[in-house]
Amino acid sequence: MPCSSATLVVWTTAWLHGAAASDDVLDAMQVWAELHEVAAADDDIATRLDLPGPGQPPAALASLLATLRKKQADDGRLILPVPGDVRGLGGNGPLATAAVRAGEAIVLPTAGMGIVPQTVADQVVRWTVFELPWMVWPEHMPIGEAEHELAGAMRQAATRLIDLDVTRQRTGVREEIEAVVTAQPAPPWPTGMPPRSLRVLQRATEVAAILRIASLDAPGAAVSASAIRARAEALRPLSEAVRNARYAAIDEAVRVLSTSRTALSDSGLDSEA
Hints:
By secondary structure, the protein is of the alpha+beta class. The protein contains ten helices and six strands.
């Protein structure tokens, strides 16, 4: 489903390239929690980035924006790791462990930073900044390729689920899917967000809802272990396609918003931290 890391990486890109104000970034993050705080994962990175370290009171999210501005960290990439796949996180280490636990992260290769959110209390999200072990660039998938992959995986999964007789076992499936989609946070996006990115993100959200419903057993149904395995196998390619679609949509948004720097700078519209 939508995630706070995607919102933050898009909005900070817009801000760093003069397409949004810092207050716009902070306001957009309110969708995910009323309070966002920031801390470094260890003392070394705390010193390097002038952020509070372990055992110190966390800083406000504005401190992270100041760090990103100081480091010119405008190459943010969304990462959606799963167990066994930590590509883009510099191998197995503290950053990868935290990111897999959260299911999301942001990496900024040129600044050597990885940032992972964690809900630490009701309406409180803490962003922990880690050292990116080395300058690693996540694989790039063009948005058109990701969109095509998502459509193909959807067709294959639908056929396979029909073969497994999954759809017949549930009633009111469409209503269940719509309820899942409607319940998701709807973060605002900055001016200049490419329509294709929005379309792909929306489609990915819809497909993820289908995945969620399809992975559940029908109420009162007796499902064998072999049937559960077959269903999971049928849905796995679709799950990967959803991740790739989200990667590509956010990458495209970052690319498009990054091109606004020259025009806005020439107009004297650059936003200050």
